[in-house]
Automatic annotation (TrEMBL):
The UniProt record lists the keyword Repeat: no
Recorded GO MF terms: kinase activity
The enzyme's E.C. designation: 2.7.13.3
Enzyme's top EC category: transferase
Pfam family, one: HisKA
Catalysed reactions, as listed in the record: ATP + protein L-histidine = ADP + protein N-phospho-L-histidine
Keywords: Kinase, Phosphoprotein, Transferase, Two-component regulatory system
Protein name (record): histidine kinase
Keyword Oxidoreductase: no
Domain Histidine kinase, chain residue ranges per copy: 349-580
Length: 582
């Protein structure tokens, strides 16, 4: 029977089929579509020829392992040289070991886009089957023992190595092709996707997923790449827990493939009948989890398949480790470049900030020395202005010195008992004149009924943090006011091997210019400012919040910043361990 779905000149082709000593003849294009299909064994081994013609080989009568066969076809079309080799095909549960001759069909311009394939069924004797399997017919339904298939796969590999078991031969060939492709990139997303695609296609599973894994207390991970057949529910993007997924905990503990068979997966929305789970690892540390699912039936995984998955996972684990290291180095390089740029901007801004008060000091003192003051009162004003400029210059220099100590890891803070009300009184003494000068309202509130609150910290550093935060509020607030308040967070905490009943939360709220939401993550980056325009308009080094955060962390607390957006004010809080209940 001959069916021709092609414009190729093949009329009369079926008449000469018996003379070709071929059981099978078909023509297919490079994408694998059957344009013509003829099968001489219709009466003995039926194939639905009328259904196969015009379909893709991956959907009907197909190679047992698709990728190596497709590469052969591509090679013949590219080189225009015929090839002869043995290859197993299958249709549904039937298995057909074939000897094939693949020839290019030349076009008038000498190129080719189609191949002519002639095949002859191989008998058991031609397969060199062991005596234990001589009773098996080559084209019967696939047995649970895959020895026949393994012998055919050896012929695909091209050579038979006596020292290597036949099953390893073909999978080593496929493994080499997959790993060579994966090693060409350092893009983690591409590595993940190529891994699941390769495993899914070679093993013919319903679904294959991969999830990155890090040995941390957080047991959650995400499906970052997925191969699946069209009618199978998607798992891509799902958040999974390693201690609740079937077989994951055991696979992570043993670093070996774990097989799970499920007789009744009706309650599983992802229809998993059979699973194989294996971690990828580098230097005995897992870095991802691969899970293969058979959703249409239970599956007996062969030793060849398990070995193949195990060895591929070993290669993938190494590739993922190298790609992760490269990614981290690239991120570190970009961060270093950005930090270098920020430091350059910081030095430029700081040099301007240092010169401004220094020039003021020199100017006012020069006026006094030159006798330019009209009377003693004006001379005193000149000296006071020079003094204020000197204090401002000292604060700038202290900021620079503090951040230098912090970056060098030499910021030592001695902790002791601190009375909060003393800190608040001194803060009010410092800032009240500045607040009144800008016509702002200042309120200081403590928790009701708690007049004596004692924290465990460093008095000078707590005062420094408060001055930084309140100073920013005054600087960036033009109308309205500033509110300082306290709150107690009651929870048992252990800091520096000491137990405390909770934290005291210091809150500074203002009605100032606020900060755009998308720029708030830059507030706690050293040498980074939300907007360079702010520096020119308001002055400062931009280190206040960074230094405050480091100081508070050294005392066991945290700093948080809140703002609903530009023009909507801001709130800054920080916590210090509470020494005892008030």
């Amino acid at each position: 029977m001959l069916h021709n779905n092609s414009d190729l000149p093949l009329s009369g082709f079926g008449d000469i089929l018996p003379g070709l000593d071929a059981d099978l003849v078909f023509i297919q294009n490079q994408s694998g579509e059957y344009l013509l299909f003829s099968w001489r064994q219709c009466d003995r081994h039926p194939l639905p020829v009328d259904q196969i013609t015009g379909t893709n080989m991956a959907d009907t009568f197909k190679p047992l392992v698709l990728t190596p066969y497709q590469e052969r076809i591509d090679r013949v079309i590219t080189s225009l040289i015929p090839e002869r080799f043995s290859y197993p095909f299958c249709y549904e549960e039937y298995y057909f070991p074939l000897e094939l001759i693949v020839s290019p069909i030349l076009k008038s311009n000498g190129s080719a886009t189609h191949v002519l394939v002639m095949g002859r069924l191989l008998e058991n004797s031609q397969l060199n089957l062991s005596p234990n399997h001589s009773e098996l017919i080559a084209y019967r339904a696939l047995p649970s023992n895959f020895d026949i298939q393994q012998k055919m796969l050896v012929q695909i590999a091209g050579t038979l190595c006596r020292s290597v078991p036949p099953t390893s031969q073909i999978y080593q060939t496929i493994l080499g092709q997959i790993t060579q492709k994966i090693r060409r990139t350092l893009d983690l997303k591409e590595i993940w996707q190529q891994t699941v695609n390769s495993l899914g296609q070679v093993l013919g599973v319903s679904r294959c997923i991969i999830c990155p894994y890090r040995s941390t207390s957080d047991k959650s991970t995400q499906v970052v790449a997925e191969y699946r057949q069209e009618d199978i529910p998607m798992m891509l993007g799902l958040n999974l827990w390693s201690d609740s997924e079937l077989g994951w905990a055991q696979a992570l503990a043993t670093l070996e493939p774990i097989i799970i068979e499920r007789s009744a997966p009706e309650n599983d929305p992802y229809q998993r009948h059979s699973l194989m789970v294996i971690p990828t690892a580098y230097q005995e540390q897992p870095n991802s989890l691969i899970s293969l699912h058979q959703c249409d039936r239970t599956r007996q995984w062969t030793a060849a398949e398990i070995d193949f998955v195990r060895e591929l996972a070993t290669h993938v684990g190494t590739v993922i480790a190298h790609a992760t290291l490269y990614q981290e180095l690239e991120e570190a390089r970009l961060e270093a470049v950005a930090l270098s740029r920020l430091k350059s901007e910081f030095l430029a801004n700081t040099s301007h900030e240092l010169r401004t008060p220094l020039n003021g000091m020199i100017g006012f003192l020069q006026l006094v020395l030159d006798g330019m003051a009209d009377d003693p009162e004006e001379e005193r004003e000149f000296i006071e202005e020079a003094h204020q400029a000197a204090i401002h210059l000292l604060n700038l220099i202290n900021d620079v010195l503090d951040i230098a100590k912090i970056e060098a890891g030499k910021m030592d803070i001695e902790l002791a008992l601190v009375k909060v009300d003393e800190v608040l009184r001194e803060i009010e003494h410092f800032i009240r004149p500045q607040v009144e000068q800008k016509n702002l309202k200042l309120t200081i509130q403590t928790e009701a009924g708690n007049s004596q609150i004692i924290v465990y910290g460093n008095y000078q550093r707590i005062l420094q943090v408060m001055l930084n935060l309140v100073g920013n509020s005054i600087k960036f607030t033009h109308k309205g006011g500033i509110n300082i308040s306290l709150g107690i967070i009651r929870e048992n905490v252990i800091i520096q091997n000491q137990q405390f009943p909770g934290f005291v939360e210091f809150r500074v709220v203002d009605t100032g210019i606020g900060v755009p939401i998308e720029k708030q993550d830059r507030l706690f980056q050293a040498f980074s400012q939300v907007d360079s325009g702010y520096t020119k308009q308001y002055g400062g080094t931009g280190l206040g919040l960074v230094i405050s955060q480091k100081l508070v962390q050294a005392m066991g607390g945290k700093v948080k910043f809140y703002s609903l957006g530009e023009g909507l004010g801001s709130t800054v809080t920080f916590t210090i361990p509470l020494y005892q209940e008030p």
